[in-house]
Amino acid sequence: MSSKSLIFAIAASSVLSWGCGEQPAPAQEIVDNLIQAGFPSNDIQVVGERVYVGRDAEVTLEASREMLKAADSSEEQYRTTNLVGAAVTKVCVNGSAFTGVFSTALDLAIQNYTERSLRFTMARTPSTGCSFTIQANIDPNMNGGVAGFPANGLPFGSITIGGRLSQYGVDVIEHVITHELGHTIGFRHSDFYNRTISCGTGGNEGDAGVGAIHIPGTPTTASVGGSIMNSCFRSAETGEFTGSDVTALLALYPPAAGSRLSFRTATGNFLVAENGGGTFVGADRTAIGDWERFGYVDLNGGELLNNDLINLRAANGQFVVAENGGGGVVNANRATAQGWETFRFINLEGRSRFQAGDRVALQASNGQYVVAENGGGGNASGAVNANRSAIGAWETFVLFFQ
Ligand SMILES: [Zn+2]
């Protein structure tokens, strides 16, 4: 058997960050560190003086020690006692050290946060109006990431991303950056109580001096692939938040007042994402509650203006979709936003800015308009469609900012 074949034992997971370590001799210390860091022992191979883990990544003694420096753990959606305060409205990330695939992944990770209409926005520097700036570093010897937790109402001031992640590609790097940014705003590991869940080995991170408070509305138990905040990542990660991740984000940092939209139909009813999302959009509500408030993402950023393309998000974080891009029913059950989830937001008052009370229309990606059948009031799926070729009374909505 060649040494190369030994190296090709694929790691099911790698560790994002860890607890503290011990100190034996070189190769053995590296192995011990890796095991303590959560790598399954059968994914670790020693060839001569060198130690490899999954996907033939060599781990140096220095790197293995680095892995043990920062503590990280998980359970399904837990937060630290400290969170980012309301004074922080824009978190900036200085990623000037990031090039190539790391730069692309950083942009995607930031987008994971900006597209959720959180209480604070996030942007990469240079940017104006930053409340706080996180320094993003690359450690060429690391195969994971490290960050810290909020203090004094501010995010943690830095994240460090492992240069060795380049072996996995952009989605895994996006995953790790999104994960580390999650720590900076107060997310513990989803499997903090038992790192074995995502790492295959490892114990309970415990309180870690920062608290581990379960976030309402999310599961109390973790699962492999169940959260971007799991302790260890897999080579198959997509880089995207899971449903419970979004629930957790919105629970901790809900959109600021005035940043959600409600739509009143011709008969005086309001559009509703039934159950707060996960099923159809109706038009039969007489008052505005959470289910009748839609978060939005302005795809060109900046101020929401006439004819901007937007995504609309139900209370549970899922996106509104015109099925097939229009021509049929409107639902609120998509985890991600692409073409069918994109609407042109039209101000029928003939001016650029939107104000409460404006008459507005929504155009699906195929050019057809959203309609409340019969002007609203129909209590069933199919009461709101995206299949009209012109704007009349039923396709006109009065806008409320909530
Ligand atoms: Zn972590």
From TrEMBL:
Xref: PANTHER family: CELLULASE CONTAINING PROTEIN, EXPRESSED (PTHR10551:SF14), FASCIN (PTHR10551)
Name of this protein: Dual-action HEIGH metallo-peptidase
Organism: Myxococcus fulvus
UniProt xrefs under InterPro entries: Actin-crosslinking, Fascin, MetalloPept_cat_dom_sf, Peptidase_M10/M27/M57
Classification via Gene3D superfamilies: 2.80.10.50, Collagenase (Catalytic Domain)
